[in-house]
Each structure stands twice: as structure tokens, then as C-alpha cells.
């Protein structure tokens, strides 16, 4: 089922995701989407008070999902127990479930909870909560004694080291050293695109 107003080539309708989400999760649960696309699952999860993790191999998809979440505005739902947070659930509307048996026996009808209709606090609105965007570092070109070698920045390479048992014993330490060197060289990109550079990175 496609979206009525898509921003991505294979964007799923929010109604389809919402139906699945409400049937299988409760407020505060964690939702994982391994192919986020335009971020519909994360968008719906955020709307209904679920935590989420979403990922994609496409930088375009990640950028669209990030923009969609950062510009979204959601209704503020009334909490069942405000002091316990969203994990306590919402206050939902209920309707009477009237059956022939309840009418014949003059019994009060049971109440059915409408989990897709929580009470909305019209005086407040919500925006997306804090989240981070993580990425695998791109491959880098390094010079070895045998010429140019392409390797992953976050992988353990042995291009500059003799193949001895010492590497196997110090693999994790060696990898951490590579990470520190890369952090010192590249720095960290902060909010607003500002680059944070380090003078020294210690273990």
C-alpha cells in the first residue's frame, strides 16, 4: 500500500504501518526497521509513543527520514499515569460493546478500548524526541609498502604490520589505536556543521 503523498520511491502508507504497530506494540516498546526508506516506521512509532531504531544503506533514505522526523509535529496524548511516563500507556476512548445476550439479561455492556483513539491534549503539541544518526565510516586509501590499498576505516588491517601471532593477541588494542588516529585526523562534525578538532586523543 503506497503513500498518497510520497517523498520516496517506495514509501509505505502510514495507515498500514500504524495498524500493524498498534496491534503488536504498546507505548514505550522498541520498534526496529532495517530498511527505513523515507522513515515511515520511525515517523509512526514516534507519533504513537514507541521507541525506534531504523537503518538503511542509502544516504538519500537516511537524509529524507531525518528531515521528515525533524520537521514533524505530533498530537500530545494524555498519559494514563503521567508520573510514570509514556511506558504507562495513554488514556483511550472506550465504547460499549452491546450484544443480544447483554440486552436479554439486562446486563451492563462491556467496554471496548479504542487503542487508535487516545485522548488528545489540545493545549500541547509534540515534536520528535532526541535521536542520533550513526554511519559506518567510508573506505579510505592508505599507502603501504606494496602501493595503494583500500581499506575500511573501522576495520582491523594488517597492511603495516608483519603477520605474527602478536597481532592476534593485540587485535582489539590495535583497532582502538586505529580509531583514535582517525578521530584525531578527522575530528567530529557537530550541530550546524561545525567541526570539532582534537589536539590529542588518549586511551
Automatic annotation (TrEMBL):
The keyword Membrane does not apply. One of its GO terms (biological process) is methylation. Keywords: Methyltransferase, Transferase. Belongs to the N(4)/N(6)-methyltransferase family. GO terms for molecular function: DNA binding; N-methyltransferase activity. Residues 10-66 form the DNA methylase N-4/N-6 domain. Pfam families: N6_N4_Mtase. Its EC number is 2.1.1.-. The keyword Flavoprotein does not apply. This is Methyltransferase. It comes from the Bacteria.
Amino acid at each position: 500500500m503506497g503513500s498518497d503523498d510520497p517523498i520516496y520511491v517506495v514509501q509505505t502508507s502510514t495507515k498500514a504501518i500504524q495498524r500493524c504497530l498498534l496491534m503488536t506494540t504498546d507505548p514505550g516498546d522498541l520498534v526496529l526497521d532495517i530498511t527505513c526508506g523515507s522513515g515511515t516506521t520511525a515517523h509512526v512509532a514516534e507519533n504513537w509513543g514507541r521507541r525506534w531504531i531504523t537503518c538503511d544503506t542509502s544516504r538519500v533514505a537516511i537524509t529524507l527520514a531525518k528531515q521528515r522526523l525533524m520537521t514533524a509535529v505530533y498530537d500530545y496524548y494524555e498519559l494514563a499515569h503521567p508520573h510514570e511516563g509514556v511506558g504507562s500507556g495513554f488514556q483511550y476512548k472506550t465504547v460499549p460493546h452491546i450484544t443480544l445476550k447483554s440486552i436479554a439479561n439486562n446486563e451492563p455492556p462491556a467496554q471496548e478500548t479504542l487503542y487508535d483513539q487516545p485522548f488528545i491534549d489540545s493545549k500541547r503539541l509534540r515534536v520528535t524526541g532526541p535521536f542520533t544518526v550513526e554511519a559506518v565510516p567510508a573506505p579510505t586509501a592508505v599507502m603501504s609498502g606494496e602501493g595503494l590499498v583500500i581499506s575500511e576505516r573501522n576495520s582491523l588491517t594488517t597492511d603495516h604490520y608483519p603477520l605474527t601471532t602478536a597481532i592476534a593477541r593485540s587485535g582489539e588494542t590495535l583497532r582502538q589505536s586505529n580509531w583514535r588516529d582517525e578521530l584525531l585526523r578527522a575530528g567530529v562534525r557537530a550541530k550546524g556543521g561545525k567541526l570539532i578538532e582534537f589536539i590529542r586523543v588518549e586511551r
